[in-house]
Write a structure and sequence with these properties.
100 residues; alpha+beta; three-stranded antiparallel beta sheet; 5 helices; 42% helix
């Protein structure tokens, strides 16, 4: 498992705090780093197995142990986000990992 972290873009970015932020814009930036990472699905698999409680893992936000595609800030949702799924389905994430 350490090999995953050593090869990940999260490590080479030098912005480890970004992956554990509470700010939706910072989490989105962390996700964009993950999307270009070659060990993204391996990282997601490890997070699902360990049932991670917090952070961005394999491009998915884990918040209080639940996976999310995106987090929004406080207040009224932006019009552009209307209709977009926020919470991720664990079964679909496992299917994505297994099909890779």
């Amino acid at each position: 498992m350490n090999a995953i972290y050593e090869e990940g873009r999260c490590v080479s970015s030098g912005q480890n705090d970004l992956f554990f932020s509470e700010q939706p814009d910072e989490l989105a930036h962390a996700q964009s780093i993950c999307m270009e990472c070659r060990v993204r699905l391996d990282c997601l698999e490890v997070a699902l197995e360990r049932q991670e409680d917090w952070g961005v893992w394999g491009g998915v936000i884990f918040w209080d142990g639940r996976p999310y595609h995106r987090r929004r800030g406080r207040g009224r949702p932006r019009r552009i986000d209307h209709g977009l799924a926020h919470e991720a389905d664990v079964g679909e994430l496992w299917q994505q990992v297994r099909s890779a």
